[in-house]
Amino acid sequence: MNRSLLKARQTKYAAYAGVYVLVILAIVVVGNVLANRYNKAYDSTTNKRYSLSDQTLKIVKGLKQDAVITYYDQTSRFRQAKDTLDEYANASRKVRVEYVDPDKKPQLAREAGIKEYGTAVVQVGAKKEQAKSLNEEAITGALIRDLKDTTRTVCFVTGSGEHQIEDSNRGGYSRLKELLGRDEYQAKSVNLLQKAEVPGDCTVLVVGGPTSDYQQPSVDAIRKYVESGGRALFLLDPPLKVGREEIADNQPLTSLLASWGVTPQKDMVLDLNPIGQLAGLGPQVALVTSYNPHPIVNEMKGTATGFPLTRSLEVKSAGKATVEPLFSSSESSLATSNLSSPEVNTRDPNNKKGPLTIAAAGSYDTGKPNSQGRFVVVGSSAWLGNSFISFNGNRDLALNTINWLSSDEDLISIRPKEPEDRRITMTRAQMSFVRAVSQFVLPLIVVVAGVGVWWRRR
Question: What is the dihedral of CA 248, 253, 258, 264, to 10 degrees?
Fold first, then answer.
């Protein structure tokens, strides 16, 4: 009786143990299969530094045909590219990653024209493009070049005091030129004074903050360009008469924009929003945190942008042009028409109260199919200068605007964030407070607590 009971218990425990072992083996097998098939990772950095940007994900997930990324390097060095390239493969089943060792397969490397180790080649259909380096911007750029059939050129007007793309000073646009290059745009300067005609290879024309009046032939050339299906970005500062460098009214150019439904006002917007002051911005910088529905800014919800020395715009569709406001200044802003004095009276009854439109986008009906003209007007040019383009969402807004103007809406998104500066910056008063707490208050608390314990025990 006892022996049979003992055997039954042993059989029962053996069965339990067998089931447990089978369950654990099943979990291990399933886990390995899933890990082999799905490569998932979690990026805990605040700006998602090690994840693909929304822009790249939008392009990869929108692929209509298969793409192959081939990485050429020594076998022992494949791992240095695996983390980045696997992100592309995991984002879409249309993307396949292959690794080739030029030493073991020299024929394949020779056919691809590989001259250096660590080279990635992106192929979509029959088109192949070599990535300039092994980072997201270079690989996505090669993918964009595969998908685009033509070269895209952004032309910057010069000759009337505009910002220059070769200027690396605070107000220059050299940083903007660099960012455009990352999105596979070419940038060049054009002078409409020498020849009043927009070159035919210009995908987008940029009028970047002229300080002198445009001559009528130049304005007529811009009108003909846009009304024939061209794309243009106008960055017009308020006509300030303060200091050595005055900004002209530029009546011929503003009259052209008014005929399309955007009338630049002769004023300057002052933002009294305390949030801007907390961000280190003065009242001369309009802080924007909300946007109207439009493809340029739909992806920018929750992202702030700043516009130094901006004017307001009056927007009203006119003729063959349809215009929409993009965003406005805050409710605590105002616009002053006193542009000849460095001091502004915020209580002047002549000031216009915010919110005030400071950017607008429009389209022009040419009457021809697939030949719509597009234009964007912003009341400031300094927001794209080297010293301010890195402010929060300014870079994204600039590239989104260019992409919309060039009919590349599929590329509109938020770009990869640059490494954040995590240093703590304190004022002298804050430093004194921290020093007093760490050197005197905290040690005093420890001493008082120690004396209190000693006194109670005594």
Answer: -30
Query: For residue 202, with 0-12 CB atoms within 10 Å meaning exposed, 13-18 middle and 19 or more buried, which class applies?
Result: buried
DSSP lists the bridge partners of residue 361 as: 324, 376
**β-pair type (231-235, 373-378):** parallel
Q: Read off the pLDDT of residues 309-361 as tens digits, 9 standing for 90 and up.
A: 999 999 988 889 999 999 999 888 999 988 887 777 778 888 899 899 999 99
pLDDT in tens, 90-132: 888 899 999 999 999 988 888 888 888 989 999 888 888 888 7
Distance between CA atoms of residues 128 and 250, nearest Å: 47
The C-alpha atoms of residue 367 and residue 369 are separated, in whole angstroms, by 7
Query: What whole-number distance in Å separates Cα of residue 143 and Cα of residue 97?
Result: 13
* Torsion sign over Cα 202, 199, 150, 72: negative
Instruction: Specify whether the backbone of 19 is left (phi greater than 0), alpha (psi in -120 to 50) or beta.
Output: alpha
Residues paired with 369 in a beta bridge: none
Angle between helices 394-405 and 174-182 (to 10 degrees): 60
214: three-class secondary structure by DSSP: coil
Largest CA distance in the chain: 115
End-to-end CA distance of the chain: 70
CB 236 within 8 A of CB 207: yes
Residue type, 448: V
pLDDT in tens, 417-439: 555 555 565 567 777 888 888 88
> Quick one: how far is CA 26 from the chain centroid?
46
Handedness of CA 329, 332, 335, 340 (dihedral sign): negative
Phi, psi at 99, each rounded to 5°: -120, 130
**Pair of tokens at residue 444:** 């005093």
- H or E stretch at 137: helix 136-147
- In the predicted model, what is the mean pLDDT of residues 256-276? 88
Residue whose tokens read 């001259």: 115
Mean predicted lDDT score pLDDT of the chain: 85
Distance between CA 110 and CA 102 in Å, rounded? Answer: 8
219, 260 Cβ separation under 8 angstroms: no
